[in-house]
Amino acid sequence: MKAASPFSFPVSPALATKLARLGLTRDADLVLHLPLRWEDETRLTPIRDLLPGQTAQVHAAVREARVAYRPRRMLTVSVEDEAGGVLGIRFLNFYPSHLKLFQPGQSFRFIGEVRGGFLGLEMVHPRFARADDDTPLPTQLTPVYPTTAGLGQATLRKLVERALAAPIPDTLPAGWLAELGLPDLEASLRLLHQPPLDAAMSELESHRHPAWQRLAFDELLAQQLSLAAARAQRTQQRTRPLPARHQLTQAFLATLPFDLTAAQARAWAEIATDLGAPHPMRRLLQGDVGSGKTVVAALACLQAIENGMQAAFMAPTEILAEQHYRKLAQPLAALGVKVAWVSGSQRKAERAAAWQAIASGEADLAFGTHALFQDGGAFARLGLAVVDEQHRFGVGQRLALMEKGVEPHQLMMSATPIPRTLAMSFFADLDVSTIDELPPGRTPIVTKLVSAARRDDVLARVRESCREGGQAYWVCPLIEESEKLQLQTAQDTWATLAAQLPDLRVGLVHGRLKPDEKQAVMAAFQAHEIDLLVATTVIEVGVDVPNAALMVIEHAERMGLAQLHQLRGRVGRGSRESVCVLLYENPLSELARARLKVIYEFTDGFEIARQDLLLRGPGELLGPRQSGLPMLRFADLERDVALLEKARDVAARCLDSRPDVAARHVERWLGARTGLSQT
């Protein structure tokens, strides 16, 4: 018995497998599988009018076909049209049947790019079809679809045509479309699959045609509805409220040698309110490097503790997790808060003792890395989980932590600011607090781009800065030699710099040092027992040495914008004028040149994040999606901001008054991947 086709028409299992590789598993997927571009097969060009570089279609008869062997085996075909124009056709890859097909006198249509050859104009590997003089030409532009190995354009076109044969009901009421100024869905889809000859090609190719705008809006609306459903589902869950009691939090604020900035105070008020709610907080606290997120996170932990609950403070690397621990343990202990430290590198007895304190409820606050959720230990009464640099943790890891408590509140932190459009689209299921100002006293950082050929000048600058009492970082991307990348390594750089700068105390820190060795080097640097610290990117986040006012980043062209900005933020923390030198190797790729231009021109993390989004797009910027939502195919977050705002408003309207519309719309775009129902 044959398995039923997932489509409304017969599709063989082999073909279904190929379609599934493209995410095409039902008729609706084929309808939304839109062309990459269109080719004009509606007209013929006489061979005498062809120009090199032009893509054209000719109708011609075969004069001769033969296999040539110089410089490599190929099939060459000479064709002539009715006006006497002669064109060469070459196939570098062909089957024996091709030679039999191209018999003298047989007529074909060839479409491809025209090139200038030794013997005149030619086409290499054109598309072709047998055609008589009276074979009609298409009346519409021909779509070219994204495809996969073994799935030809002709097959895809036929499948899409079959899917388009049925009516396409609109998911949105006509009155709403009129208000939004958007065209009908069915008309938009048919136009995009088969544009008429008079279609505005510039608008089609730039995705600014009203038909594209309709598709972009629908895609954004489906995304907003799914995220809104996730948010609604969360607000229906119940957890223990942790209202503000102003005991430990006020005591902690009184110990600080500074006042919170207005942005910190605003973020803290938002978090404190969320913690008091009976449903789990899911809030992202974002702020530029050095904006004071850790203090706000500490206040959140104290609010949980003053309600009799425990808190977990987690960071992606041991050096950062330990820095949080060392920075907060002493002031919190002075308030009577019992703190535990859990790391994978601890001795077994130490880790067991830490987990004993956590499991018994003796420890109020636990600091750690992924060991906090990978270990078999349990919390007695986990009320809040703080996750620093949240983008480095997979959703599975965070879920493992959530199992340590009964739906605890979550505060995620990021020093990589999220562009507004990205927050509106991919993080709409989270509440976002933004610290958008730096504490007073932070000195501006001067960024310099320097070719590696001027390395001696940079060495002189480092020597001069350290002799004047300052300290410096020298950052390298790898620990040991890589034949593939041929990058300067931290170990070799440390040895070289120590020899070249014998009057300076040069230290080395990298990710493969044992934790106690790493901590000893960092402590020596903080105590100014080291002048120049050679480091890998382990110092990217969290390291705070106010006297270090100079940073040199080796092979800056190999690093991403967020990483460069994070590294640069390690200087500028004291009163000295701070400089970040980006050493780069020529030649630079276009992307590397664009990245270095951005980091040179901008110091604001939010603008850098926006530029990064423009350069890379949301898929690469976010990494693997953590909520299961697919990446946008038709909408562009920079171009379609107005559509995104409309989609957000319509999503709220749908869920409030027309849940049936919401369910139908998400079903079309996301299938079963939704929590919406029509009931």
Care to describe what's here?
This is ATP-dependent DNA helicase RecG. Residues 454-614 form the Helicase C-terminal domain. It catalyses: Couples ATP hydrolysis with the unwinding of duplex DNA by translocating in the 3'-5' direction; ATP + H2O = ADP + phosphate + H(+). The protein is of the alpha/beta class and 679 residues long. The chain has 5 domains: 1-38 and 147-162, no CATH class; 43-137, Beta Barrel (OB fold (Dihydrolipoamide Acetyltransferase, E2P)), CATH 2.40.50.140; 167-236 and 642-679, no CATH class; 248-435, Rossmann fold; 445-602, Rossmann fold, CATH 3.40.50. Helices cover 39% and strands 18% of the residues. The chain contains 24 helices and 21 strands. The chain has a 7-stranded parallel beta sheet, sandwiched between helices. The protein has a 6-stranded parallel beta sheet with strand order 16-21-20-17-19-18, with helices on both faces. Helix 21 packs antiparallel against helix 22. The radius of gyration is 31 Å and the shape is globular. The two termini are 36 Å apart. The model is unreliable at 392-399, 624-628 and 672-679 (pLDDT under 50).
In the CATH scheme, what's the topology name of the largest domain?
Rossmann fold
Low-confidence stretches: 392-399, 624-628, 672-679
Biggest beta sheet summary: 7 strands, parallel
What gyration radius follows from the Cα positions, in whole Å?
A: 31 Å
Alpha-carbon distance between the two ends = 36 Å
What sort of overall outline do the alpha carbons produce when their principal axes are compared? globular
In the CATH hierarchy, what is the class of the largest domain?
Alpha Beta
- Mean pLDDT, rounded to whole units? 87
> CATH H-level name of the largest domain... which superfamily?
P-loop containing nucleotide triphosphate hydrolases
- Percentage of helical residues? 25-40%
Strand content: 15-25%
CATH architecture of the largest domain: 3-Layer(aba) Sandwich
Number of domains: 5
Helical element count?
24
- Strand tally: 21
What is the spatial order of strands in the main beta sheet?
A: 11-12-10-13-14-9-15
Structural class: alpha/beta
Domain Helicase C-terminal: 454-614
GO molecular function: DNA helicase activity; hydrolase activity
EC number: 5.6.2.4
Protein name: ATP-dependent DNA helicase RecG
